[in-house]
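[step 3/7] inverse_fold.run input=structure_tokens len=284
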């Protein structure tokens, strides 16, 4: 495998690229048929009983090569990369032209410019409940996370003057534990992890690539975010006619990306004090 040598986008120095901020990583059960619409035929999907593991990564960066921006990575599914596996991104939405260009031309991502609209609504506090023992054992607090505020993030894909709604993501802002209140800081174990991913096979970068994201952050489990779309019943309708125009293919991919977002969540992790290091991609 060879490291890709390409023109570096303005604002991005040579790799690795460093991003700092916070994120929500939510894993879903995605229909294998939906995931296969995005994944190259030469890659084998990790699946069981007609489903694979996908979901999304919703991040807010306050320090990056492109400055401050938001990102939504729609993860179609997981593919085999013996002896382990890699994620495959169906769509990457960012509210930064520079980040979009870099994702397309340097990392081979299906990046699109988007608009992120955020609204925070206060909700009544609920009575606290006791935490599960295994959460306490890992230092994840003595009570289950309790809702305090509700943040709604509406994401719309932008193409010139036109825009298309992708989804609405409702995330509960959890009340700090008693220990967090005493210490005056957010708790949760500090971890290091690596998220290997495949990319490429796009109009901007036809080669199949592989790259790694190395994360350092504090993490804790939270209630899964609620994802919705105004036309839920239309998201998985795809014509079987193979003679699609490029615009029709783009719209089909968008609908299937929404279908991934609307699939069943199984776990959600909140990342704080996040530092993500993205390595240069290599040709597979």
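[step 3/7] decode complete -> sequence:
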């Amino acid at each position: 495998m060879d490291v890709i040598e390409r023109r570096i986008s303005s604002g991005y120095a040579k790799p690795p690229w460093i991003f700092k901020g916070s994120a929500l990583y939510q894993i879903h059960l995605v229909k294998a048929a939906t995931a296969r619409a995005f994944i190259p035929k030469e890659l084998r999907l990790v699946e069981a009983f007609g489903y694979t593991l996908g979901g999304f990564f919703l991040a807010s960066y306050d320090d990056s090569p492109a400055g401050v921006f938001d990102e939504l990575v729609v993860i179609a599914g997981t593919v085999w990369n013996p002896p382990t596996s890699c994620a495959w991104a169906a769509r990457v939405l960012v509210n930064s032209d520079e980040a979009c260009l870099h994702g397309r031309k340097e990392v081979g991502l299906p990046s699109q410019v988007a608009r992120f609209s955020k609204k925070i609504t206060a909700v009544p506090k609920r009575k606290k409940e006791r935490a599960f023992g295994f959460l306490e054992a890992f230092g994840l607090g003595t009570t289950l996370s309790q809702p305090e505020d509700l943040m709604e993030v509406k994401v719309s894909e932008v193409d010139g003057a036109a825009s298309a709604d992708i989804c609405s993501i409702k995330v509960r802002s959890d009340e700090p534990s008693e220990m967090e209140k005493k210490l005056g800081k957010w708790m949760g174990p500090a971890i290091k992890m690596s998220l290997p991913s495949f990319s490429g096979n796009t109009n901007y970068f036809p080669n199949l690539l592989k790259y790694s994201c190395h994360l350092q952050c504090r993490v804790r489990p939270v209630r899964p975010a609620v994802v919705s779309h105004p036309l839920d019943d239309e998201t998985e309708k795809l014509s079987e006619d193979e003679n699609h125009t490029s615009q029709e293919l783009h719209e089909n991919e968008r609908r299937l990306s929404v279908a991934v977002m609307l699939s069943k969540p199984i776990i959600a992790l909140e990342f704080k004090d996040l530092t993500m290091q993205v390595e240069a991609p290599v040709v597979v």
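[step 4/7] annotate
The chain is about 15% helix and 50% strand.
The longest strand covers residues 17-31.
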